[in-house]
Amino acid sequence: MANTSQPLRRTALLASGVALLGLLTACGTEGATSSGTPRPSEAARTAGANPGSGTPTSGDTAPPVGAAPTDTAGSASASARTDGRCHTAELRATVGRVDPGAGQRNFPVVLTNTSDRTCTVYGYPGTAFVDASGKQLGPDPERAPGSPGTVTLTPGKSAWAGLSFSSPQISGARTATPAALLVTPPDEREPLKVTWTAGEVPVGGNASSVSVTALEAGTGP
């Protein structure tokens, strides 16, 4: 009787090898198509993860690199140049000639628009006499009663406020000779410095008050 066990064993081993080769081939190609393109499930996992892809994910609101930003600051600046109050840097302050009368000394304090835009001033300027070191002389001037109004200044136009005090020779107030008058435009913090050449001013005593009026259009009475 012929021995058939050995050929059967070789046939079984050959079949097992073929099955194993098929299994290894299947493992090596899992997750890819025949062209090597990632399957949809893998592409979904990696979408937007590559910073160099240039494709933002949903919810990524950053603008593309190189895109021009929205110029909100420039728009606000352009708006401010067509309307708004006059700032210190846009003005020049001067003090006009004294207008004496009834024991008073009256001076027009003038603010002139030196900018290239139209702006406005409203209310009272701040004023203070100072010595050569910048120390204030006397109390702050008082605001004279009045009805302030908005003054529109086109380039080169002026507004003025009246600075008044009793003549020290008549009032007997304690006096000092200022080096300058500091003038602060309404709603501003930085003052303008004007050399004072009009002599003594009252800085103490019962009759030492100085007053300032609200701004109005023009350069003085």
UniProtKB/TrEMBL annotation:
Location of the region described as Disordered in the Swiss-Prot/TrEMBL record: 29-85
Chloroplast is among the record's keywords: no
Signal sequence, start to end: 1-28
Keyword annotations: Lipoprotein, Signal
Protein's UniProt keywords contain Glycosyltransferase: no
Domain of life: Bacteria
Domain DUF4232: 86-214
InterPro entries given in the database record: DUF4232
Protein's name according to its UniProt entry: Lipoprotein
Organism this protein belongs to: Streptomyces lividans TK24
